Amino acid sequence: MDVLTISLMLAAGLLHASWHSLVKSGQNQITVLAGMGTVAGLWAVAALPFVPFPAAEIWPVLLLSVGLHIAYKLCLAGAYTRGDFGQAFPLARGMVPLFATLIAFIGLDQLPSINQCVGIVMVSSGLLLLSLEKIHRLAQWPLLLTAAAAGAAVAFYSTVDAYGTRLMGSWLGFTAWLIVLDSFAFLLLSRILRGPVLWSEFSTARWRVVVSGILGLLSFCVFLRALSRNPVGAVTTIRETSVLFAMAIGVILHREPLSSRRISGAFLILSALVVITL
After folding, report:
1. Which of 95, 94, 87, 96 is closest to 134 using CA atoms?
2. pTM for the whole thing?
């Protein structure tokens, strides 16, 4: 992987952690997710006249990806209602690199290098180390299950999106159509789940919605651009360094504890990034 890609993915990691923090701190996670998606979708609509219309073979990939993205958001909202930011976020991301690498190998015939394999295992170990505190308690198992489901959805949609960008031949075109379809499909689902109160909740959380929408849009565009040019496992692994930013945000903004286990997990993740860049 080139230095530019690594730098962009680190920036995407910071953006990713930032919008997740905004979602977690909102009064209703589904409302914030729907609102930020709508903001991103409106920006993406403006790009549609300048990108190609998807061919027939692209639509099944887009629809599958939309379903996976919606499943991720629902699982993520469930995880954030059950755990603190510094625990739920790493749990949701912990197994993504391993899942994504395995799925990309089976579905896309992408075989990572030895360094990338070592780095992927190190990142996953570090993420789990960050998040497994107090998980032995019975009350924490719903958090574990919803977070694991969110991680699996990320791994699957990462691989599907990587395939879609290659199949369409335009990463920007695939990204724009995906964001539009995903955003408005989730908005419709949120309206069904929340009822008419959704619109007043949008108004109450308007600044949180707008800022998270812009951050999420930038983060996802950078992510898909990297997926279109590099192995899925390596890209998703570097993206998971967002957990380091999330840990800092959790300590500074959410007043969450900084334990030795979380520090050790952060060191593992940083070491893994060095291994991958070599």
Report:
1. 87
2. 0.75
Asked if residue 26 lies in contact with residue 19, where contact means CB atoms within 8 angstroms, the answer is: no
Give the separation between CA 229 and CA 73, rounded to whole angstroms: 26
From CA 74, how far away is CA 23, in angstroms rounded? Answer: 12
110 Cβ neighbours under 8 A, 6+ residues apart = 104, 231, 232, 233
Residue at token pair 């993420």: 127
Kindly give the residue spans of alpha helices, DSSP state H, lying in the chain. 3-24, 29-47, 59-80, 85-94, 96-108, 114-131, 141-168, 171-194, 197-204, 206-227, 232-239, 242-252, 260-277
Residue 3, burial from CB neighbour count under 10 angstroms (0-12, 13-18, 19+) = exposed
Q: List the structure tokens of 3.
A: 């230095």
Distance, CA of 222 to chain centre: 12
**Residue 79's CB: how many other CB atoms inside 10 A?**
26
Low-confidence ranges of the chain (pLDDT < 70): 1-2, 24-27, 84-87, 93-95, 97-98, 108, 127-141, 229, 232-234, 236-237, 240-241, 250, 254, 256-259, 261-262, 265-266, 269-270, 272-274, 276-278
CA distance 35 to 73: 12
User: Measured between alpha carbons, how far is 254 from 243 in angstroms, rounded to an integer?
Assistant: 15
